[in-house]
Write a structure and sequence with these properties.
CATH architecture of chain C: Orthogonal Bundle
Number of helices of chain A: 9
Helix content of chain C: over 70%
CATH topology of the largest domain in chain A: D-Maltodextrin-Binding Protein, domain 2
CATH class of chain C: Mainly Alpha
CATH class of the largest domain in chain A: Alpha Beta
Oligomer: heterotrimer
Number of strands of chain C: 0
Radius of gyration of chain C: 22 Å
Chains: A alpha/beta (245), B mainly alpha (247), C mainly alpha (234)
Largest sheet of chain A: 8 strands, mixed
Radius of gyration of chain A: 20 Å
Shape of chain A: globular
Order of helices and strands of chain A: HEEEEHEHEHEEHEHEHEHH
Distance between the termini of chain A: 59 Å
CATH superfamily of chain C: MetI-like
CATH superfamily of the largest domain in chain A: Periplasmic binding protein-like II
Number of domains of chain C: 1
CATH topology of chain C: MetI-like fold
CATH architecture of the largest domain in chain A: 3-Layer(aba) Sandwich
Structural class of chain A: alpha/beta
Largest interface: B-C, 39 and 38 residues
Strand content of chain A: 25-35%
Strand order of the largest sheet of chain A: 5-1-6-11-7-10-8-9
Distance between the termini of chain C: 55 Å
Structural class of chain C: mainly alpha
Order of helices and strands of chain C: HHHHHHHH
Number of strands of chain A: 11
Largest sheet of chain C: none
Chain lengths: 245, 247, 234
């Protein structure tokens, strides 16, 4: 083969891998957020987000392809076109809307404060305490807003590292999403919620790249259809006792 | 006003005066970056001073004729130079830290804070590297100098303080300057153990804005700090050369 | 405590060793790419064209003053953006993915290149001028004299410095853990979290790093000895 032909062939190959196949929906998620997304012993992704993503694919009559990406790289990856949508319990926020679009919500999120039961932590007392949260989350934003930008807030790269420091006693309380904490305190019975779930009108949506209204609207329609045909309720019941929509 | 408040006041003061001159992204994150810059500067100050002191002790230990001193010091230096700093930081913060108050007792108030873990590990790490440089310098002091000092009746300690150590410092200063810049760069790793230094603040701003520019601004600030360190070392070197009897 | 570090499906021993293998691959790939970059930069620094010299010196100056951690982050988050915007401007669709391994390799090679270019520059300058003059006097062209004499003789001067940089490189590979590359340190972190025993896992990782640096030290000493072979003192 002549060098030029090799280059042309290589280019063709490269382009074919770059171009998104029309009948596949590539879903980005971080896989470190049980019970919404996590990896099971066989290396497969499972959880509420994963099931919803798969149901959306079925609704859109597309094949699902799951792409795993670290949490703080999820939005950059969507902007770069590594995947078409993010289904990863992502809150619809003003900040994020500057970079990406969101569909209608697929569930409502509450945040919460968790601490050791015998420590006597109260919401009002948080200002004078050390509080932990995952970097770049709505909970971290809430903590900063409620407690002040310069409160003693420790930020972690993963939720697991934040749990570890709560267990070690390095932070007095964690601010995190309500539903995963409900799960976590089942196995860590010395810990409990401080106050109830905090409603910050947080809606979780599917993130889509900007200027892709067609995809955004079809995913929104798919979510509505799942609510109507009962598939959503089935998935919901698999993970939670209450309707989280 | 607490020490922390003073730091914030300095940071706010700087930002109030310069925000008008900055692009939007920097103006919005100015107080975060200056907060971080102050933490990094503090961290450098403490670790250079205490790390330097530790290095002198360790270098003396390494050249000691007593094996029960020189061997353990050699092992310390070998372990800290043979493993990545990130492993050392995580071993102490996440590893030892997991023992909690029950396992660490009186050490816990320090081990509890990412800041103290960062300070301690950076001191131990830089102490190991600098002690090697210093040891080389001490070994290379011409024998004649020491013999001359002995001849005028100085004790071993006097010789070390007045002859060997000053001569070694003079020859090792450029290498030490490089080491301090390496320490500055290494200090960015404390952001992985919850310390809000310049790198920690930068990562937090990025995680929110997804704007890569913030990393370039932060890189500029590190470059400026490295530049300041270089200039300081040049000044000290010049001074030492001037006061030096031997050229 | 040692049960969790056993080999096989019960323990994490094999996972840790596999992580160490990724670390070695990462170090070697970065070394290869970094040596090429270092040689090119050294060539630029020795060039007779001033702007090229300035650019190459500025590159080294910048990389030396910026934390390695920050460089890795910029490459990880930035290279995709850059490549995709170039592809898009050429009319291709974006979405090209850079694996953490490639990003880490490029980042570490950029750092290694900056430092090694100084080593190479010094080494090229250390080759006595008489050698080149002699080569030309026996009728070699400029290129022949460079490739057969100066380039080959340069290595023995460069090897001690490169050995030091290799030791730094091995340790710097641990930074890739922060961008989720499953090398030794990241495996240790995941293992420590899932077994709730970070102490044992980080200790194991530390020992594996010590073994890697100790072995490198032995190899380095051997190569240095070889490089000095037949060396009449300067």
């Amino acid at each position: 083969m002549k060098p030029m032909k090799i280059v042309a062939a290589a280019a063709a190959l490269a382009i074919s891998t770059i171009a998104a196949q029309a009948d596949t929906l590539r879903v980005g998620l971080d896989g470190g957020y049980p019970p919404f997304s996590s990896q099971n012993a066989n290396g497969e992704m499972e959880g509420f987000d994963v099931d919803i993503a798969k149901a959306i694919c079925v609704e859109l009559k597309k094949d699902c392809e799951i792409v795993v990406q670290a949490w703080d790289g999820l939005i950059p990856g969507l902007i770069e076109g590594k995947y078409d949508v993010i289904v990863n319990s992502m809150s619809i926020t003003e900040e994020r809307l500057k970079s990406v679009d969101f569909t209608e919500k697929y569930y409502s999120n509450y945040i919460s404060v968790v601490a050791k039961k015998d420590k006597g932590v109260t919401i009002d007392g948080l200002k004078s305490m050390t509080v932990g949260s995952q970097r770049a989350t709505i909970s971290a934003d809430w903590a900063e807003k409620e407690l002040g930008a310069r409160a003693d807030i420790k930020l972690y790269d993963t939720q697991t590292a934040a749990y570890a420091d709560l267990l070690a006693g390095r932070v007095d309380a964690l601010v995190a999403d309500y539903l995963p904490i409900t799960d976590w305190i089942k196995t860590n019975t010395d810990y409990g919620f401080v106050g109830g779930p905090i409603n910050i009108n947080d809606e979780i949506g599917v993130a889509v790249a900007k200027n892709n209204e067609a995809l955004r609207d079809s995913v929104s329609a798919a979510i509505k259809a799942l609510r109507m045909n009962g598939v959503y309720q089935t998935i919901n019941a698999k993970y939670f006792d209450v309707d989280i929509y | 006003m607490s020490y922390q408040d003073i730091k914030y006041a300095i940071s706010d003061g700087i930002c109030e005066n310069i925000t008008g001159l900055l692009p939007e992204l920097l103006a919005n994150s100015c107080s975060k970056l200056t907060d971080g810059l102050i933490v990094t500067t503090e961290l450098m100050f403490i670790t250079v001073l205490l790390g330097g002191a530790l290095a002198i002790l360790a270098a003396m230990g390494r050249i000691s004729p007593r094996k029960w001193i020189s061997y353990p010091v050699a092992v310390y230096s070998y372990v800290f130079r043979g493993t990545p700093l990130l492993v050392q930081l995580w071993f102490v913060y996440f590893g030892l830290g997991s023992l909690g108050e029950a396992g660490l007792g009186p050490l816990w108030p320090y081990m509890r804070e990412g800041w103290w873990v960062g300070v301690i590990v950076l001191i131990l790490n830089t102490g190991a590297y600098v002690s090697e440089i210093l040891r080389g310098g001490l070994m290379n002091v011409p024998k004649g100098q020491i013999e001359a000092a002995l001849a005028v009746g100085m004790t071993r300690m006097q010789i070390f303080r007045r002859v060997r150590f000053p001569l070694a410092v003079r020859t090792t200063l450029p290498a030490y300057g490089n080491e301090v810049i390496l320490l500055l760069k290494s200090s960015a790793l404390v952001s992985t153990i919850t310390v809000m230094d310049l790198m920690g603040q930068t990562r937090t701003v990025f995680a929110r804005s997804y704007n890569l520019e913030i990393y370039f601004h932060s890189a500029m600030l590190y470059l400026v700090l490295a530049g300041i360190i270089t200039v300081l070392f040049h000044l000290v070197e010049r001074r030492l050369k001037r006061s030096s009897v031997i050229s | 405590m040692f049960d969790i570090l056993k080999l096989g499906s019960e323990g994490w021993g094999d996972e840790l060793l596999f992580g160490a293998w990724i670390t070695v691959q990462l170090a070697i790939a970065s070394l290869g790419l970094g040596l090429i970059l270092g040689l090119l930069l050294a060539g630029g620094k020795l060039s007779s064209f001033p702007p090229l010299r300035w650019i190459c010196h500025a590159y080294t100056l910048i990389i030396r003053g910026v934390p390695e951690f920050l460089i890795i982050m910029i490459v990880f988050f930035g290279s995709e953006r850059m490549i995709n915007s170039i592809l898009k401007s050429m009319g291709f669709e974006g979405g090209y993915e850079i694996s953490p391994f490639l990003a880490a390799t490029v980042g570490l090679a950029m750092i290694f290149g900056a430092y090694s270019s100084e080593v190479f520059r010094g080494a090229f300058e250390a080759v006595p001028k008489g050698q080149m003059e002699a080569a030309k006097s026996v009728g070699m062209s400029n290129w022949q004299a460079f490739s057969r004499i100066r380039f080959k003789q340069m290595w023995r001067f460069a090897i001690p410095g490169l050995g030091n940089l290799w030791m730094v490189l091995i340790k710097d590979t641990s930074l890739a853990a922060v961008i989720a590359l499953e090398e030794l340190l990241r495996v240790a972190k995941l293992g420590g979290e899932s077994e709730q025993n970070p102490l044992a896992f980080f200790a194991a990782a530390g020992i594996l790093y010590l073994i890697m640096t100790a072995l490198s030290d032995i190899v380095r000493a051997k190569i240095e000895k070889r490089a000095r072979r037949g060396f009449v003192s300067l």
